[in-house]
Amino acid sequence: MLQVAVYGKGGIGKSTTSSNLSFSLAKKGAKVLQVGCDPKHDSTKYLINGKEQTTVLDYIRSTPPSQRKLENIMLEGSGGVMCIEAGGPEPGIGCAGRGILTTFDTIEKMGINEIDKDITLYDVLGDVVCGGFAVPMRNEYADAVYIVTSGEFMAIYAANNILRGLLNFGTSRPRVAGIILNRRNVENEREIVERFSDGVGLPIVVDIPRSDEFIEAERLGKTVSEAFPDSVPASIYGQLANDVIAISTGVRKLYDPHPLSDAQLNDLAAGKAITVLGNFKREACHCNKVRRGTGSCASRGAVFAAGRVNDLPIIIHGPASCGYVMSHTQDVHFLTEMGTNPSTAGILRNNIQSTRMSNDSSIFGGHEDLMRIIRAEANKGKRTIMVITTCVPGMIGDNLDLIKKKAEEEYPGLNLVVVKADGNLTGGSEEGRLMVMQAIIDFIDEAREPVDMECNLIDDNFIVYSSGRNSEWTNRLLKDLGFSKVHKIIDNVFLDEVVGCKKNILNVRTFDDPTVNGMANAMAEKKGMKIFSEPLPKGYSDTLAWVEKVGKEYGIEERSQAVSEKIKQQYAEALERHRPFFEGKTADIISGILGDDDWMIEVLIDAGVQIRNYYVFRMRIGGGSGPSPDFESRYKDRLNVREMSNPLEIKMAVQESNPDMVIGGVMIGWHGQQFKEFSRDYQCFTHYASIEYLDYMHTMMTSAPTMGWRSWEGEEESKPETGKAEPVKITQQQIEAIKVMMGGHMPPKMEAALNQMKEGKMPEGVPPDMLQMIKSMTGGH
Ligand code: ADP
Ligand code: MG
């Protein structure tokens, strides 16, 4: 079986050529199937008496897979030619290319391969050589590709694009059959097309004259070959049929695609000589740059943010799975990653819906799916609705502006907020979040006067605020200061609360962070809200200063002074309780991701702890975590700050320092060590964090000394077991490999140890866990 594709610009005569060719082949005794791959769906029209035929795409839209039958979409035409039309969406919406893919997939499932045939002919629109229209030119389909053109420049331009498309498929074998000249009677037509054919190195297989016989035949509902078998065109199609038969028997040569460059096309258009190059290089693809994503897509970021407004109807325009995954990851994020169960945990709320775009909608467009849900929400009385797009509507070109206009016309007073988060396939949840933040800030009613002693907290995710007891402490402090209510802009709020939030006098950023600052700036600039200069306070002295400043700026000095006194008293009590224990103990600190440890350093120092080393940990690979490059601390001069990028380096330094406590967030594994490691969480808001921290550390350090921790309160120091391990024999190659794994930087001590091991010796001064690690790196030998 030979598969032939006929490509060319729209209206150039592909269908005329295809159906005449099919008819001629059939006359010569071949069993032919013709598949029309043009949304115009008129490829086979004159093989079936000018009738319309049910297209595959219409059929699968109305018929469930189990009931589909090939005979419903395949008609027998003149000469016994089997006819199929792919069809496609209305012009301007949906994705016709995707339709072609679906058609091929569907007819295969319906058993097209089991039908007995000698030649399959694909009649394909060649103006857009997108992935879908390129399907027939894939290796598994077309064995031979004909390109129909006239002498018009646009037709030649399309012909050249088809060759480029073929080139991009990196064809495994020569497959271009040549050029079919279908005359339009432009001046010097033959000469122009010959120049093109010379340029691309392809023969002009046949030259079909322009003739009124075509129109006459069509009036009869027939092809020229059938209606006027003795006409010139009919005999030419006979020659073309012979050419196809020659290909099918392997006696006719096929060609590789060598499209013209843009410059050469310009030469052609200008009537200049085309410089023919010996070698044509494949043009570099510009879309394979690697972009650093932010873990998920813009749509998910947008849904994540918008979902914090409890009663805002959110429509995720996209496939059902997108909606599901978005809701799901939200829960997972909070419950497992953050280890917390904030108000936001129940996020799989019924205010989030998905348009559940199907395969059909990706071809025919998703407008109807979306309008249906918008109407349902609007009919419930909702007058603010947010639509967040996913990639699919973006790629198929759904027109959201049009939908907005239509919906708002249909429902007076409706505000359809469209967040176009589509099209970003490689990440950027931050982008989506910001888009939603902007939209939500737009909801705020500018006209409200700030009169209520209530507080708006500003954050885009409230993750830190929701961690541990941060929110509890913050709210307690605010209440003490007289702010009776806290509104989270935005988290677990209602739309009215957002709209009316300007009535609350205190606006505070939870954190000093670019996104949060961006929100605050927008609230100040767009809505005239007064934002308090300081973010929420962390630890003792920060809180004192914060309380004083709030007192001054909001005219509540008396109250703030009383609160300050209380804070001082609470802190002093805590120090009194814990100082006898901490006095003189030593600590090493490894910087956290936020690099904001002053509140913790403060309370440790106040309790009498000596901080020996402060390691600023910076990951080298990927540049992911670590504090900002400009490490800032008000204790900078009092700390021994050491910048390190290799966890093992830090580990060895800590071992050398051998403090009573190691506080840090780097996962190195300290098994068998004599000190405790305290991982840090983000419970740092207000002076309560400082007090709680001392309680926590005290409890931890006096708890049962398992895993070789140093023990306190009279117990014997337990010693890790050392020196019992078997020697490990490794090769130079393995040492090199470990070096590479460590980013090319190996601590000298480790290198020395490895060299000893290479000699089969038991290395000196290597702790068992490092030995264990080397074992696992070298495959345990
Ligand atoms: P395509 O399939 O490339 O879009 P068609 O085959 O449908 O183009 O042709 C478009 C119109 O041009 C048809 O009405 C057809 O009758 C007419 N046509 C095609 N080739 C010729 C020709 N050689 N002489 C006169 N009319 C032609
Ligand atoms: Mg056509």
Keywords:
binds adenosine-5'-diphosphate, 781 residues, binds magnesium ion, five-stranded parallel β-sheet, alpha/beta, 13% strand
Radius of gyration: 37 Å
Q: How are the strands of the biggest sheet laid out side by side?
A: 3-4-2-5-1-6-7-8
| Span between termini | 58 Å
Number of DSSP E strands? 20
What portion of residues is helical? 40-55%
Which spans have pLDDT < 50 for at least 5 consecutive residues?
277-294, 335-348, 620-629, 669-676, 714-724
Mind summarizing the main beta sheet? Answer: 8 strands, mixed
Q: Helix/strand-derived class?
A: alpha/beta
Molecular shape: elongated
DSSP strand (E) fraction? 5-15%
SS field, number of helical segments:
28
Ligand list: adenosine-5'-diphosphate, magnesium ion
Query: What average pLDDT do the residues reach?
Result: 83
Task: Give a nutshell description of this structure.
By secondary structure, the chain is an alpha/beta fold. It is 41% helix and 13% strand.
Topology:
Blueprint: E1 2-8, H1 14-27, E2 32-37, H2 56-62, E3 75-76, E4 82-85, H3 96-109, E5 119-125, E6 144-149, H4 153-168, E7 176-182, H5 189-200, E8 204-208, H6 213-219, H7 224-227, H8 232-248, H9 262-269, H10 298-306, E9 314-317, H11 320-337, E10 352-354, H12 359-364, H13 367-379, E11 384-389, H14 391-396, H15 400-410, E12 415-419, H16 429-443, E13 452-458, H17 463-466, H18 470-480, E14 485-489, H19 495-499, E15 504-509, H20 514-527, H21 540-553, H22 557-582, E16 586-590, H23 598-606, E17 610-617, E18 641-644, H24 647-657, E19 661-663, E20 676-678, H25 686-701, H26 732-741, H27 748-758, H28 768-777
Parallel strand pairs: 1-5, 1-6, 2-4, 2-5, 6-7, 7-8, 9-10, 9-11, 11-12, 13-14, 13-15, 16-17, 16-19, 17-18, 19-20
Antiparallel strand pairs: 3-4
Helix pairs in contact: 1-8, 10-11, 10-16, 16-20, 18-25, 21-22, 21-25, 22-25, 23-25
The protein binds adenosine-5'-diphosphate and magnesium ion (MG).
